[in-house]
Amino acid sequence: MVAIIGVDWEGSMYEVEVAWETGEILASCLFSLFIGSLIVLIATSRLRRRFKTTTAELTALSGGIDSLMEELTLQGGTARRREAPHDGDEIGLITRRIRNLREQVQSSLRHAQSQAFSMIAALSAEYRSLYYVNLAKDETVCCRADAVKASWKAGETFSYVQALQDHVAHNVAEDYRQGFLAIFDQACAEKEPEGGPVLAYRYQETSEVGGGFELVRIVRIGPGELGVGFTGVDAETRRAMEHSKILRESLLAAAEEANRAKTAFLSNMSHEFRTPLNAIIGIGEIAMDTPGSAEDMRGRLQQMTGAARQLLQLVNDILELSRIESAEFSLRELVYRLSGQAEEKCREKGLEYRLEVSGILKYSVYGDGAKLGQVLANLLENAVKFTPAGGAVRLKVDAEARFRNRPAVRFAVRDTGIGMDKDFLPRVFVPFSQEDCSSTTVQCGSTGLGLAIAKRIVDLMHGSIEVASEKGKGSTFTVIVPLGEEEAPERAGPASAAGGGCEVQFEGRRILLAEDNGINVEIVQLVLEGRGMEVDAAANGRICLDTFKASPEWHYDAILMDMRMPEMDGLETTRAIRALPRADASKTPIVALSASAFSEDEAKSIQAGLDAHLAKSIDPVLLFQTLGNLLSRSSQQEGEADDIANGSASAESARGPA
Questions:
Q1: 130: how many CB neighbours lie within 10 A of its CB?
Q2: pLDDT of residue 325
Q3: Count of H helices and E strands in the chain?
Q4: Average pLDDT for consecutive 10-residue bins of the chain (658 residues)?
Q5: What is the four-CA torsion angle of 497, 501, 506, 509, rounded to 10 degrees?
């Protein structure tokens, strides 16, 4: 192999290549330097912007910190002055402020914690011992030891289940163990008890540990965590038990007293009911079995009627619950009417009677004259009843200056009778109360209701009733009732049955009677037919309504309506009649005949469209007086209607044909 090597001994070619390579390297370094400078410039610009933003945020944070620090330090009475940041020292200033803020917050937390611990200690002071229970770990920590029964020391940890079992077995009385365990079962349940997170149970300890009463209170702190506190409540519990015992004994004594009063009342009522019933039945049997003259028969019937009215008055006394009504009445007429009745009874019994009155009788008064008369009549009747022959009864009526800011009248009923014991006076107005049922009250027919009813009536009239009595010397009852008064005008004589001064003719009048009781139908028919009236009877409300519908207009002059009937009662039947599309439906008088005598029942009757309400048994005088007033008014209305009709017909005739 042959090689030919050429050598450039002068080196010109190498110089050119070295110069070229050097230029490339220099150009590359310059380019890299330019690019690096540009990158550094861009990065520095972004960093400066980021630094400015961070500085602004730190400045705002510094302002917030200053405000918070001022609020914290103002509570201590010294406010820190906000420092002006020096250029370039913002971060250092913010750091110092954050450090100060942390110290302030820690100080506030320590203060709040101290207050909380103090509050907890104050609230738990009533507990003799406190425990924290962790159910999941079966662990109990003694937070406050029992100074009396030092079972565990403060800070000691023990088993919850074992401690509960030992406490129930040795400290809880047997009668309370079931309830004690039940309250802990409720506290340990997953679902929160209905009464809330706090449960309490009062129990008695065993005699071995003193037998006192304790209260355990359980608080559900969190899931599976309980707070349990024990405190002694022996003194409070025993005071409550003593009070409860006294209350039970008082209620028992009141119940026994009420039972004795009820027994006495039922005994008296049995006597009072049987006496007139025996008279009615006995006289009726005598009348049927014994032949005699018409005069003898009339006398026996009068005796039966008197006994029946006595029985009716007894029922009215028992059921007296009517409200007080206000109307004008003559005080003079009331006093002299009652005084005349009392004087007659005193004369029959051999008693002296005296009436003392003042100028108050020249006034008419506003009030319930019937109820006031009932009160006075009862007091006068008792005075006569309980005063032996040879004694005296006095009624005094005068004006009371003012009573509850209203003019008032005072009535005093005084007697020289048997009087009452001072121990009985507080119960004299109690229903069914009687001082002595051995002789006098049974003989005189007392039921123990009269004074109770009188007291109720006086209370409803916003008045007062008082009694003063001495055993063996007599009694004085004083009644004061406020009554609006004005001088009485001249009064006309008593109104006639028609109410307009003209006598109503009952003969030929047609009456529709709605009554489901056959005996009552017969009685009413005999009473009405005795005055020449025609009576059509309907056995219930439905038949009454159908009978009225089928009759011509104005066929019936009045309707007597029983309130309690099958099919339709009296109120429903009356409403149906009043709603009929005929001229006489709203004008025909309808009178209620009801065994219910309460004012509420009367109000219901009037609201249903009845014109009057009469209580059974029917008083013929009152029945005809009521019918007379209603028929007179109905006749006037019919006459006015006829005049209007005749006037219209005359006007049509005067016009003549068109």
A1: 20
A2: 54
A3: 15, 19
A4: 51 67 75 73 74 70 65 52 53 72 74 63 71 89 78 84 89 90 85 77 84 87 85 82 79 75 63 63 65 68 70 64 56 84 90 84 66 88 91 88 66 92 85 59 55 84 88 92 55 35 78 89 88 93 94 94 89 94 92 76 84 82 87 66 49 40
A5: -110
How buried is 493 (Cβ within 10 angstroms: 0-12 exposed, 13-18 middle, 19+ buried)?
exposed
Q: Which residues in 141-176 are b (16+ Cβ under 10 Å) and which e? A: bbbbbeeeeeebeeeeeeebeebbeeebeebbbeeb
Angle at 177 between CA 176 and CA 178, to 5 degrees: 95
CA atoms within 13 A of residue 120's CA, in its CB half-sphere:
11
Alpha carbon distance 522, 526 (integer Å): 6
Record the tokens describing residue 574, joined without a space: 């009356």
Query: Which residue in this structure is represented by tokens 């009652």?
Result: 338
The whole-angstrom separation of Cα 176 and Cα 174 is 5
- The single-letter code of the amino acid at 249 is E
pLDDT at 308: 73
Residue type for position 70: E
Q: Hey, what are 134's tokens?
A: 């962790």
Tokens representing 608?
Answer: 């249903």
Backbone dihedral angles phi then psi of residue 433, each to the nearest 5 degrees: -80, 135
The CB density around residue 494, as the number of other CB atoms within 10 Å, is 5
Q: What is the CA radius of gyration of the chain?
A: 53
Q: Say which residue the tokens 């209007």 belong to.
A: 644
Would you call 503 helix, strand, or coil by DSSP? Answer: coil
Instruction: Answer whether 444's CB lies under 8 Å from 456's CB.
Output: no
Given this model, what pLDDT does residue 649 score? 45
DSSP letters for 90-112:
HHHHHHHHHHHHHHHHHHHHHHH
Q: Is 584:553 a contact under the CB 8 Å cutoff? A: yes
Residue type, 524: V
Contact 471, 338 (CB under 8 A): no
Distance CA 388, CA 631 (A): 50
User: Tokens for 393?
Assistant: 């009864």
Rounded CA-CA distance 458/460 in Å is 5
